[in-house]
Design a protein that fits this description.
Elements (H helix, E strand, L loop, with lengths): L18 H33 L3 H5 L21 E10 L4 E11 L4 E7 L4 E2 L2 E2 H8 L1 H12 L5 E6 H11 L2 E5 L3 E4 L7 E4 L2 E5 L1 H13 L3 H15 L2 H5 L1 H11 L1 E2 L3 H6 L1 H8 L6 E4 L4 E2 L2 E2 L1 H10 L3
Parallel strand pairs: 1-6, 3-12
Antiparallel strand pairs: 1-2, 2-3, 4-5, 6-11, 7-10, 8-9, 13-14
Helix pairs in contact: 3-4, 5-6, 5-9, 6-7
Length: about 300
């Protein structure tokens, strides 16, 4: 029996005097080394699977979070323009608090708003008189004739219904440019008191802001409030709740919008609600000569809302 000593001291390789012995010891050494390498490789692979020993995780600091890149949203192709008349009314007296033309422009991905005075005279009658005598449908027809543009649908909401629907869609962030202190002492008047700066606006405050700016004939800011609501309330969260919100709108409003209209507009809603969509807004301000919108202003409004 031949006794072999591979290691003389720790870390030292023993070199035998015999060539035969040397070849045999080398072969045994190589077999043992190969076994050690193979065993180590298998061990590291198994541990790597269990504990994720990747270079990225090894060198990355503990406080760095690695996030997946979000996939680009696949939005449908949309086009076309739709004009609406939006009316906020007094259900007790059948009179108008506000009247706005709203365009949803899917060609330019834009909202356009023009709020007109309720005392605007059209062919000898004010908008308020037309509404009181014949309702929102007649206002739609009169405004269409005045501006020579097709208006598709009307939405008529009482003051209370407007507040409730607004709150269902959610409060908006709006910047008040100066302090507001106003008290309307009429039978259906209102009080509003706001500080300058960023405000969280609910349905009650939004209705008062619109009425206040119409009282002082600041039609541009009245437009701005409606545009802000459209931009912020048509969002991904409300898109997920669109069927419930539409049902509430139909229930609380006088409107000629149908379920078929809603179904056809679903692609539009998806695009308008997406965070990937850049929405433009336009405020169109009427210019008055007494209670009549000037010819030049009528032309501008017509061009803005042409389809």
């Amino acid at each position: 029996m031949i006794f072999l000593r591979i290691f003389k001291n720790r870390g030292d390789i023993y070199i035998p005097s015999s060539k035969v012995k040397s070849n045999l010891e080398q072969k045994i050494l190589l077999v043992i080394l190969a076994f050690i390498v193979a065993f180590s490789a298998v061990f590291l692979i198994l541990q790597g699977i269990k504990y994720d020993f990747s270079l990225k995780n090894f060198f990355a600091p503990d406080n760095i979070k690695i996030e997946n890149t979000p996939q680009e949203e696949n939005l449908p192709k949309v086009s076309g323009k739709n004009n609406f008349i939006f009316i906020m009314s007094n259900s007790d007296t059948q009179e108008i608090f506000s009247c706005s033309i709203i365009q949803v422009d899917m060609d330019e991905l834009a909202y356009k708003v023009c709020t007109v005075d309720k005392n605007t005279v059209i062919e000898g009658r004010t908008i308020s008189q037309i509404y009181n005598e014949s309702g929102a449908g007649s206002v739609l027809n009169a405004v269409s004739v005045l501006f020579g543009t097709e208006i598709d649908r009307y939405i008529d909401e009482s003051l209370n219904d407007y507040k409730n629907i607004f709150d269902e869609f959610g409060a908006i962030n709006y910047v008040v440019l100066s302090d507001i202190r106003y008290k309307d002492t009429s039978k259906y008047g209102f009080n509003i008191k706001l500080k300058e700066g960023s405000q969280t606006v609910n349905g009650d405050v939004a209705s008062k802001l619109i009425r206040y700016y119409l009282e002082i004939k600041n039609y541009d800011v009245a437009n701005e409030i409606i545009l802000t609501a459209l931009s912020q309330q048509i969002n991904p969260e409300n898109y997920e709740k669109r069927e419930r919100l539409f049902a509430s709108l139909i229930e609380r409003s006088k409107t000629n919008i149908t379920i078929n209209d809603y179904t056809k507009s679903e692609d539009n809603l998806k695009v308008l609600s997406s965070e990937a969509t850049g929405i433009k807004v336009f405020s169109v301000v009427p210019v008055y000569e007494n209670s009549v919108i000037s010819a030049e202003s009528v032309k501008e409004i017509k061009n803005s809302f042409a389809k």
